[in-house]
Amino acid sequence: MLTIPEELIDGCRRQERSAQEQLYKRCYEPYLRLCLRYAGNRDDAADILNKAFFNILTRIDQYRGDGNFAGWMKRIVVNAALDFVRANSRFRGHEPVEKAGEVPEPSLSDQHLLGQDILNLLQRLPYTSATVFNLFALEGFSHREIAETLGISEGNSKWHLHHARQLLQQQLNSTAAL
């Protein structure tokens, strides 16, 4: 987790350009990687991040000092990414509810998927399945929260998570065979 000095936060509250620039430079790469999990390409991820930073800098007075500032920022970045997902037409084509029955427990644990190559694997997934996987496995959302956030059923959320895990397993198996 990023550590942001209090002086830098205070400078941003005073709208000091140098403090805002320092915060942006310090946080750009880690949060860009987060945005890439949702966007699929660097240009869209940069757009998401820039919108998130605008929100961070214009709403910094809403941060009361409770908890970690980087965590507060991350929540804004995730929300900006979810706004992108909701607005993106590719998301509209999620699987029908009939396919969203009970799914078996996955054979692949989330811990095996963490690492540098996860981004490349996630970018190969269907858009909705990748989004559900990100929210569940990487952001800690429940299926109920995912369903509410994305406007799908809980069963559909479970199906997309299962589908994403299956595809990731196949990708990992084919990569390991090389």
Secondary structure blueprint with pairings:
Blueprint: H1 6-13, H2 17-39, H3 42-58, H4 69-87, H5 118-123, H6 127-138, H7 143-150, H8 154-177
Helix pairs in contact: 1-2, 2-3, 2-4, 3-4, 6-8, 7-8
Order of helices and strands: HHHHHHHH
Query: What is the level-2 CATH architecture name of the largest domain?
Result: Orthogonal Bundle
Q: Can you count the beta strands?
A: 0
Number of helices: 8
Shape: elongated
Radius of gyration: 18 Å
Q: Roughly how much helix do the residues carry, as a percent range? A: 55-70%
Largest sheet: none
Mean pLDDT: 83
CATH top level of the largest domain is Mainly Alpha
Report on the structure:
- The chain is mainly alpha-helical.
- It folds into two domains: 6-87, Rna Polymerase Sigma Factor, Chain: A; 93-177, Winged helix-like DNA-binding domain superfamily/Winged helix DNA-binding domain (Arc Repressor Mutant, subunit A, Orthogonal Bundle), CATH 1.10.10.
- It is built from eight helices and no strands.
- The chain has helices at 6-13, 17-39, 42-58, 69-87, 118-123, 127-138, 143-150, 154-177.
- Helix 6 packs across helix 8 (154-177).
- The longest helix is centred in the C-terminal third of the chain and has 24 residues, at 154-177.
- The relative contact order is 0.11.
Descriptive labels:
about 180 residues; mainly alpha; Rna Polymerase Sigma Factor, Chain: A; Arc Repressor Mutant, subunit A; 2 domains; 8 helices; elongated
